[in-house]
Design goal:
By secondary structure, the chain is α/β, with parallel strands linked by helices. About 50% of the residues lie in helices and about 10% in strands. It has helices at about 10-35, 40-60, 75-95, 105-135, 145-160, 175-180, 195-205, 215-220, 245-280, 330-335, 345-350, 365-370, 390-395, 400-415, 415-425, 460-465, and strands at about 135-140, 165-170, 185-190, 210-215, 225-230, 235, 285-290, 300-305, 355, 385. The strands form four sheets. The protein has a four-stranded parallel sheet, with helices on both faces. A two-stranded antiparallel sheet has the order 5-6. Strands 7-8 form a two-stranded antiparallel sheet. The two termini are about 30 Å apart.
């Protein structure tokens, strides 16, 4: 539903970005040398410029810069910064391998700064100008009354005046061709009966209307089904919801190498955090808790302690809330920066977890979820992760069934490249605090999970406990 996507395809944006990044690096040369750039340096730049452009496009794609959806300004700046950093690292590596020593290191620093500035400015300008060029597109939302309100609110908050919800219909009103003909886009909720969806899609196709569908779990399970035939009858082959052994091996090797490297690199930070926790509150800096992992196997999840010792002793499992006094001062900082998850690198190295996968849950809540949420058990077909698709696409208040959809979609769509994309995009969660905020006030039923020591910052377990909220 991106208003810019109809005029600016990913290909056009990629070409523009490749040009702009080279403009950024050329500005770096101008700052360093002025208008009289030595020929040897200019030649080095011309030889590397195609590679810099290609790396910029690839890194921007990995960070989510070409996704066909709305981006907040802070996300655009994040994507541009990450793209500039990866492009600079890659450019220095290529310059070293090709012996292009006439490409000064200071240019990479200046190029990085100009890259962020130019790329962010161009995206923000496009985002601001394109919606004004076209007419407001009218949207009809079809589903239950409650879901229609939610979908309409999302559209209004994200797309502003470029999309306007003019009709909210139930299943009986959905057949009215006069209403459907009066809008540009028809959006279905997943609460709509299948027969109604089928009929209305046909009407929309006849009227030439764009159709967007909020998928249900059945739709997710059909994703990537293989086309085949039974004699002359077309069939769809739905494979088991899991990752094959070859992919598991590749994923395991990737996880082990990355976890070991990060533990070595981040060991000073881990030591500082441990000392800060011990100096400001009594008890161990770490805590472990039993969680359910791959195929229902329990394991001990590790985290930095962010609450006072024995925070649940008097209350039992309760959901954390905004301003929860049980959270320590150091713990509040760790949570806001998502640093309380660092000890889980050990879980990854041990093989209990992966970097990417569904967030692990307590055994008690897994039983509750299995009873209350159909198909929940499928998310146990892969190792749990430090982060996942539900964590980068959802937020604290995301509907639990929607989180499950993201988890199942990830399993069905797994690739190492997808893992890398999710890891890179997880970094910007630190710039969107609302994704991990607690409740506005204390509350929660007896079967809602507690917060801090039992909560995950990226996708807190009290967030997972919203299945019961």
């Amino acid at each position: 539903m991106n208003a810019a996507s109809s005029k600016w395809s990913a290909t056009n944006l990629g070409i523009l970005d490749a040009i702009l990044v080279n403009v950024a690096y050329f500005l770096g040369f101008l700052v360093k040398f002025g208008t009289d750039i030595p020929q040897v340096n200019l030649n080095a730049f011309l030889r590397l410029s195609p590679w810099i452009g290609i790396m910029s496009v690839i890194s921007f794609w990995l960070s989510g810069g070409y996704d066909d959806d709305f981006r907040w300004p802070v996300e655009i700046i994040y994507n541009a910064t990450l793209s500039a950093f990866l492009t600079g690292i890659g450019g220095m590596a290529i310059a070293f391998l090709t012996r292009e020593f006439a490409f000064p290191r200071t240019i990479f620093i200046l190029g990085f700064m100009f890259h962020v500035l130019v790329l962010s400015s161009s995206r923000l300008l496009i985002m601001r100008l394109i919606p004004r060029e076209g007419k407001v597109r009218k949207v009809a939302v079809i589903g239950s009354a409650a879901q229609n309100q939610v979908v309409a609110a999302r559209i209004s908050s994200l797309f502003g005046h470029s999309l306007q919800v003019t009709h909210m219909l139930d299943s009986t009103e959905a057949y009215n061709p006069e209403i459907l003909n009066a809008v540009d886009i028809v959006c279905f909720g997943d609460s709509l009966p299948a027969n109604v969806k089928e009929d209305v899609v046909r009407i929309c196709l006849e009227l030439g209307k764009d159709v967007y569908v909020v998928p249900d779990l059945y739709d997710i399970l059909l994703h990537r089904a293989r086309l085949g035939r039974l004699d002359d009858v077309m069939i769809l082959r739905v494979e088991s919801l899991s990752i094959d052994k070859g992919q598991q091996l590749v994923k395991r090797v990737f996880d082990a190498i990355l976890a070991l490297a990060l533990l070595v690199i981040l060991s000073p930070l881990i030591l500082v955090i441990s000392s800060a926790i011990m100096l400001t509150s009594s008890g161990s800096p770490f805590y472990s808790q039993e969680r359910i992992g791959w195929r229902g196997k329990p394991f001990k999840l590790l985290k930095f302690r962010t609450m006072i010792q024995d925070a649940e002793r008097d209350t039992g499992p309760v959901l954390t809330w905004e301003g929860d006094p049980r959270i320590t001062k150091v713990g509040r900082i760790l949570r806001s920066l998502r640093l309380d998850e660092l000890p889980q690198l050990i879980n990854v190295l041990q093989g209990d977890m992966s970097f990417v996968g569904p967030r692990p849950e307590r055994p008690f809540f897994v039983e509750q979820f299995n009873d209350r949420i159909r198909d929940y058990r499928y998310r146990l077909q892969v190792k749990p992760g430090i982060t996942g698709l539900a964590q980068i696409e959802g937020r604290y208040s995301t509907n639990p069934e929607d989180k499950l959809k993201y988890d199942l979609y990830y399993i069905r769509s797994f690739s190492l490249l997808l893992d890398l994309q999710i890891i890179l995009r997880t970094l910007k969660v630190a710039f969107t605090p609302d994704k991990a905020n607690g409740l506005a006030r204390p509350g929660g039923s007896a079967i809602v999970e507690e917060g801090a020591p039992t909560s995950d910052s990226v996708n807190s377990d009290c967030e997972d406990a919203s299945y019961h909220s």
